[in-house]
Amino acid sequence: MDLGGSFLEVNDTYLDVGQSNTNKAFQVQLMIWGVMFASGSMLFILPLLGAAIQALGPYKKDFWSMFCEGFYVYLVDVSWWTLLPIAVLCIYPVLSTTFKKARIRPLRFNRQRREICYFPEGSDEPIIQPWEELVAWVSISTGFTGDGVMSTYTFGMAIDNPKTDKTHFLTHGVFTPAHGISKWEAIRTYMEKGPAHCPGKAPYEGRHTFDLERDGLHEAYREGYASAIGVAWWYLCRAVTWWRFPYWVAEWDHGYAMKAMPASIAQWSQPLPVEQWAKPSKELKEQTARLEKAYANGQNFTTYFNSQLGAEPATTNV
Q: Who has greater pLDDT, 244 or 150?
């Protein structure tokens, strides 16, 4: 399961897990909607309200002359210095998320070497850790609100840096514990069985996404799943949000944020002859056999490990 498009590259040698540009175009569309709403309020709604107050007031001034006067005042004297900070506030999240993502390289799982490569944020010094030493978990946090109980779920991994004796924690929220376990299982089965047993490379958003969405809308309309009003609304929304511009920004985000690996890791990521592939440990093979036997007897991932608590330590990667 790859919700959010975090599997950036999947091949027979390595798997890259990071952050794709999913929903970047929508983020830009929200930015444009914000700027357009602020502009419309500044240039039309406020002059209309002011003109209405003047027209209905004791002096009974002409509505249209008051509207034109207010429109001119806001257009020339007020809007520029007011809309500029609003535009900056709308643009900032779009650019900041791209720049932040560009500082973080994806986590690379090399199944042929059975190793993991991790770069701390902003660092060009890689941390290489054996696959079977990786620690992963799904945690549940419960809080109380005025209306009831709220639970949040987190999938996490811990990577040790032997040079600095420091542990790096990588966490992100998931919808349910099953989503976290499923994501871990996708990574695990890739490392143990290969790319055919995990989700493929996540698609990225770009100008081609606009064409795919439009073609899908036309097909849905031809087959009766979309109405003419829905089609017209889609075109109106795209016209207001500057047509293909959000998808162009998403494509730029994808190219800018995909930070290249150093030459040493590029070499480390090269395919190896089959006879040089690292082998799983004896302990991992034994526990895998026990787990598969439990599956065959009707147990699942959770019930198996619950039955093992207190009986023996659980190997992380099964």
A: 244
* pLDDT tens, residue by residue, 191-225: 988 888 887 787 888 899 999 999 999 999 898 88
CA trace torsion 127, 132, 134, 135 (10° rounding):
-170
Amino acid at 263: A
Other CB atoms closer than 10 Å to residue 24's CB: what's the count? 26
* Contact indicator for 23, 11 with CB cutoff of 8 Å: no
Take residue 175 and report the two structure tokens written for it. Answer: 């919808």
pLDDT at site 318: 44
Going from N- to C-terminal start, the domains of the chain cover 207-247, 285-318
User: To which residue do tokens 């004791």 refer?
Assistant: 58
Helix (H, G, I), strand (E, B) or coil at 271: coil
Q: Which distant-in-sequence residues (6+ apart) come within 8 Å of 279 by Cβ?
A: 114
Which own/partner pairs from 176-181 qualify as long-range (CB within 8 Å, at least 24 positions apart)? 177/138, 177/140, 177/153, 179/1, 179/3, 179/153, 179/155, 180/138, 180/153, 180/154, 180/155, 181/138, 181/301, 181/302
Q: Is 117 helix (H, G, I), strand (E, B) or coil?
A: strand
Q: Which two tokens stand for residue 176?
A: 């349910």
Q: Do the beta carbons of residue 93 and residue 104 sit within 8 Å? A: no
Q: Between the CA of residue 27 and those of 46, 59, 70, 250, what are the distances in Å?
A: 27, 46, 32, 9
Report whether pLDDT(317) > 50: no
